[in-house]
Amino acid sequence: MQSRAYLYLFIATLSWGGNTMIGKMAIGHISPMILTFWRWVFAVALIALISIPSLRRDWPLIRKNWLLLLAYGAFGYTAFNVLLYSALQYTTAINAAIEQAGIPMLIFLFNFVLFGTRVSAAQIAGFVLTLVGIAVTASHGDFSTLLELTLNFGDVLVLICVVVYAGYTISLRWKPPIDWRSLMAVPAMAALLTTVPLMLWEVSTERAIWPDRTGWWVIAYVGIFPSLVSQILYIKGVEGIGPNRAGLFINLIPAFGTILSVLVLGERLQFFHVAAILLVLSGIVIAEKGRPKT
Questions:
Q1: What's the DSSP call for residue 173?
Q2: 289, 110 contact by CB (below 8 A)
Q3: Is the dihedral of CA 124, 125, 128, 134 positive or negative?
Q4: Of 62, 69, 102, 294, which sits with the fewest C-beta atoms within 10 Å of its C-beta?
Q5: In the chain, how many H helices and how many E strands?
Q6: Which residues cross the membrane (predicted)?
Q7: If phi over 0 gives left and psi between -120 and 50 gives alpha, with beta otherwise, what is residue 242?
Q8: For the segment 230-245, what is each residue's pLDDT rounded down to a tens digit?
Q9: What is the pLDDT of residue 246?
């Protein structure tokens, strides 16, 4: 049972790691807002096939909490992906993959500041190591760029993206007690609705790039794997080995994103990338191992 859970989590994080790589591949084949719109058209159609019975059962709670569920879709789904796909117009997929590793550490920080969640010395040390790793990536190994505030615009967008997703994750503590399929379906529908104005804006400013053949392959990937397959397999993995152990696998996402960017996109892996990955993963492992025991 455990080996099967490990396989589920491996495939889930590999698929999520591919989201950054595929977003970079989309450049010139489909624009960010068009990609986000079609991603959720595709994903909602697939999610609806497995969630209609649960949606019927959960409808009273969905109606009562519709504003919160709408916010989940608008921020956790739409804003995150729009920022990520837009950032990849300006920065490398490797940079974006590594910088997203700041999400777990930012969740620790938000929990401590907002809710007084206990933080150990090891978690603080891990948090600092992760920040250093992200700074190495964002500055391309040259810390003087941080002092001069000349960060790549794409890196800035990814860091905003990290803040948005950490906030979304924290807000899940208030999710209503509905079936996991309903919790996937309603925010996905909300994401589709909130993406429409952004797509219309992109079209009106003549920045839209409608998908060509490669663009449709990109849409198929992001609609099937990060949006659906990863979610289902991650839930199955958590059921198999528990949330604390399963959460460690999320730390593989930046590593997978980097490896795929090198193998598929042919991006150049530089020394500062390797140093940043080691710093980030070391920081997260130290924080997880040294978390306060409950």
A1: G
A2: no
A3: negative
A4: 294
A5: 15, 0
A6: 7-31, 37-55, 67-88, 94-114, 121-139, 151-171, 183-203, 215-234, 246-265, 271-287
A7: left
A8: 877 877 776 676 655 5
A9: 60
Q: Give the burial string for 36-58 (b: 16+ CB within 10 Å, else e).
A: bbbbbebbbeebeeebeebbeeb
In this prediction, residue 56 carries a pLDDT of: 92
Q: With left for phi above 0 and alpha for psi between -120 and 50, is residue 72 left, alpha or beta? A: alpha
pLDDT for the residue numbered 8: 84
- DSSP string of 189-210? HHHHHHHHHHHHHHHHTT----
pTM, two decimals, is 0.76
Residues of the chain with pLDDT under 50: 149
Locate tokens 């996402």: which residue? Answer: 253
Q: Is 11 exposed, middle or buried (0-12, 13-18, 19+ CB in 10 A)?
A: middle
Ranges of each domain in the chain: 2-289
Determine phi and psi for 89, rounding to 5 degrees: -70, -20
- Whole-angstrom distance between the N-terminal and C-terminal Cα of the chain? 25
Using alpha carbons, list the distances in angstroms from residue 223 to 47, 181, 217: 10, 16, 10
Contacts (Cβ under 8 Å, ≥6 apart) of 154? 86, 87, 88, 89, 90, 91, 95, 96
Task: Give the model confidence (pLDDT) of 182-211 as tens digits.
Answer: 888 898 899 899 999 999 999 999 888 999
pLDDT of residue 233: 82
Q: Are 158 and 213 in contact (CB under 8 A)?
A: no
